[in-house]
Design brief:
With 162 residues, the chain is mainly β. Helix content is 12%, strand content 39%. The strands form four sheets. Strands 5-6-10-9 form a four-stranded mixed sheet. The chain has a two-stranded antiparallel sheet with strand order 1-2. It is elongated, with a radius of gyration of 25 Å. The chain starts with a strand and ends in a 10-residue tail after the last helix. The relative contact order is 0.13.
């Protein structure tokens, strides 16, 4: 996503290990090819070296995913943070930032953080997708609260949905 310069190692047809310093442009995509002039095989009969072509493979990240030209991160929030509103920390490539989760936020809702999809703060946005997380082992008081909510405020989120 961000431009970098890297040294790549490769084997030529004769089995010799070679290396080349390569500029990887910002915005490169998985599967894209990059040409490195003069680092390929030599032409038959001792001619000039040809070009080396690299196929870019973008590794996965434990927190961030590419979504078009932007990055996406899931932001876990509690039921009460989503229902009542809260300010939560969101990881970015350059640390963390805080965002306000408005009352009534739904799971899957996305907040766009302009310019936070890059460690340099330029070009791409960070899409923070809300993921509502329930407690691992709710206690009896929590369960009773949820039963009361269900009994007094029923709704069906699947009503009218395919």
């Amino acid at each position: 996503l961000e431009g970098r310069e890297r040294t790549v190692r490769y084997r030529d047809r004769g089995g010799a290990t070679r290396s080349a310093r390569v500029k990887i442009p910002a915005g490169v995509r998985d599967g894209q090819k990059i040409r490195v002039r003069g680092k390929g095989e030599a032409a038959p009969g001792g001619g000039a070296r040809g070009d080396l072509y690299l196929v870019i493979r973008i590794a996965s990240h434990p927190l961030f995913e590419l979504e078009g030209e932007h990055l996406r991160v899931d932001v876990p929030v509690t039921v009460y943070e989503a229902a009542l509103g809260a300010t939560v920390e969101v990881p970015t490539l350059s640390g963390t930032t805080r965002i306000k989760i408005p009352a009534g936020t739904r799971g899957g809702q996305v907040f766009r953080l302009k310019g936070k999809g890059s460690s340099r703060g330029e070009g791409t946005d960070l899409l923070a997708r809300v993921r509502i997380v329930l407690p691992d082992s709710p206690d009896e008081a929590t369960l009773e609260l949820l039963r009361d909510w269900r009994d007094h405020h029923p709704y069906d989120p699947r009503d009218g949905k395919p």
